[in-house]
Amino acid sequence: MARASATAWISANGLIAGASQNGETDPRDRGFPQDCAVLWRDGNILDLGSLPGGGYESGAQTVNRRGQVVGWAIRIQLGFIRQSRQRPCFV
C-alpha cells in the first residue's frame, strides 16, 4: 500500500501539523488507508498518536509556536463511531 502525508498548518517558526498514512487499512472502509496525526519538526516526523483505549485514526489541524497541536481522532466501539473533542497535545 502506498503511503502519503498531508500538511494542514505551518506555524510561524516552521512547525508543521498534518496527517500521514500509517500503512494500516481503515476498519470502516476496507481498502482505504488509516491516517495518523503527525508533527514535522526539524526534519523529523513525530507520530502524535490517537485516542487512548482503541483510537485508530487521527489528524493534526493546527500548531502554534510552542508546539501545542489541536486535531481530531476517532475510534469504533460496538459499531458506532465516536469522535473526540479537540484538545491540545504538548510536544
Summed up, what is this model?
It is built from no helices and eight strands. It has strands spanning 5-10, 16-25, 33-41, 44-49, 57-63, 68-77, 80-83, 89-90. The protein is globular, with a radius of gyration of 13 Å.
Explain what this protein looks like in three dimensions.
- This protein has 91 residues and is mainly beta.
- The chain has one domain.
- The protein is 0% helix and 59% strand.
- Mean pLDDT is 79; it is low at 78-91.
Tags for this entry?
91 residues; mainly beta; four-stranded antiparallel β-sheet; 0% helix
Mean pLDDT: 79
Could you tell me how far the N terminus lies from the C terminus, measured between alpha carbons in angstroms? 29 Å
The value of Rg in angstroms is: 13 Å
Order of helices and strands: EEEEEEEE
Q: Note the overall shape.
A: globular
Helical percent range? Answer: under 10%
Per DSSP E runs of 2 or more residues, the count of β-strands stands at 8
Number of continuous helical runs: 0
Based on helices, strands and strand pairing, what is the structural class?
Answer: mainly beta
Strand content: over 45%
Strand order of the largest sheet: 1-2-3-4
Main beta sheet strand tally, sense and closure: 4 strands, antiparallel
Q: How many domains, in number, for the residues?
A: 1
Low-confidence stretches: 78-91
